[in-house]
Design a protein that fits this description.
By secondary structure, the chain is an alpha/beta fold. It has helices spanning 48-56, 157-160, 163-174, 191-202, 215-223, 255-261, 284-288, 302-311, 329-337; strands at 10-18, 21-28, 36-45, 58-59, 62-63, 68-69, 73-81, 93-96, 99-101, 121-123, 140-144, 148-150, 183-187, 207-212, 228-231, 242-247, 262-270, 292-295, 320-325, 345-349. Strands 3, 7, 8, 11, 12, 19 and 20 form a seven-stranded mixed β-sheet that branches. A six-stranded parallel β-sheet has the order 15-14-13-16-17-18, sandwiched between helices. A three-stranded antiparallel β-sheet has the order 2-1-6, with helices on one face. It comes from Streptomyces hokutonensis.
């Protein structure tokens, strides 16, 4: 395999400059400071936030003030160690926990340990702070050693780049105790929904049903472990009286049918991001059916659980639908954003390792 990296002092990065303006920029290759490592990135997965920055110049309430390197689902190899880093090694295959707390990290006792709820977090590929936090869609990036997660034996860097979204799914599934043997509905079979299917199956769910408007997405959900699928576009209805429902579409119009599908006294976990603006939704069943409706946001340390699951044989590669080289990043974003493309998780080959 040939070496596709740039010269020793430069590197390429996928940089969004504004709405509809993403470029492959050449930048100076960074040098790790004390306590950091230099990563030679190999794979990255495109997420909805990457698409939002590209299409709208914003993701949620975070808006671009400056160019931003995209990407928070990444993996590669350690290229160099900064001073004081002794528990990692050059050449080691790793992924990254993309969250870094800003400040003392103190949380109220009622949410102690739930660092995903800490109010000030720098996240890879996020414009929430100024200066922004560059992501990992680049050939190289320096990372604090504490955010590095070594890949287990048998887990390659393409799988390693899936550990972050799998951690999101595992966190969502973990919001419901004692899932083993229970019937589960996952509404929305995009990349996260399909990973929730795999995570629920991994957690021992009894029957897993997936619903979506896309036959292609439902085929991915079946490959990830769904026992049944419901194609809403063909008039198929959601199942009734489901004990545990994961809403992964983020579509306000889905909330009424999903609440009606949830059993009386059941639990609905909201995984899909809902709009930050006013929407119209039928929510009456939330009260009359005494449904427990809970949110699920990113993850805490479930990325470690994700790596153990991958090590133990959980195969989530069916979620990958497309692979593009770094220089075709704009095409990759367009495919990931197009509901008619048949895409699920679109991967970027950030660089080919040297032989």
């Amino acid at each position: 395999m040939s070496n596709c990296r740039t010269d020793t002092g430069r590197m390429r990065a996928v940089v969004v400059h504004g709405p509809g303006d993403v470029r492959i920029d050449e930048r100076t290759r960074p040098t790790p400071a004390a306590g950091e490592v230099l990563l030679a990135l190999e794979w990255g997965g495109i997420c909805g936030s990457d698409i939002a920055y590209w299409k709208n110049g914003a993701s949620g309430t975070a808006s671009l003030a400056h160019p931003l390197v995209l990407g928070h689902e990444v993996a590669g190899r350690i290229a160099a160690l900064g001073d004081g880093v002794t528990d990692l090694a050059e050449g080691q295959q790793v992924t990254v926990h993309p969250a870094q707390l800003v400040g003392d990290g103190a949380l109220p006792e009622r949410i102690a340990g739930r660092t995903n709820l800490y109010p000030h977090i720098r996240y890879f590929g996020s414009a929430a702070f100024d200066p922004h936090t560059d992501g990992g869609f680049s050939e190289f990036r320096t990372v604090p050693a504490g955010q590095i997660r070594p890949l287990p034996d048998g887990v390659d860097t393409q799988q390693g780049a899936l550990a972050e979204p799998l951690a999101v799914a595992l966190h969502a599934v973990g919001r419901v105790p004692a899932l083993r043997g229970r019937t589960v509905l996952v509404n929305g079979a995009g990349p996260i929904g399909s990973l929730v299917v795999a995570a629920a199956r991994h957690a021992g769910a009894g029957t897993v049903v997936a619903a979506d408007l896309s036959a292609t997405s439902l085929a991915v959900a079946r490959a990830m472990g769904a026992d049944e699928t419901r194609d809403i576009s063909r008039g198929e209805s959601l199942p009734e009286d489901v004990e545990v429902v994961f809403e992964a579409s983020g579509a306000p119009s889905a909330l009424g049918p999903v609440l009606r599908s949830t059993a009386r006294g059941g639990t609905l976990v909201q995984v899909g991001n809902l709009p930050g603006t006013a929407v119209s939704a039928a929510l009456g069943d939330l009260v009359t059916r005494e449904i427990t409706w809970i949110g699920s946001y990113r993850f805490v340390e479930e990325i470690d659980e994700a790596l153990r699951a991958l090590r133990d044989g959980l195969d989530v590669t069916p979620v990958i639908s497309h692979r593009f080289p770094l220089e075709r990043a704009e095409e990759a974003l367009a495919v990931a954003a197009d509901p008619g493309s048949g895409s699920s998780k679109v991967m970027l080959r950030l660089a080919v390792p040297s032989t």
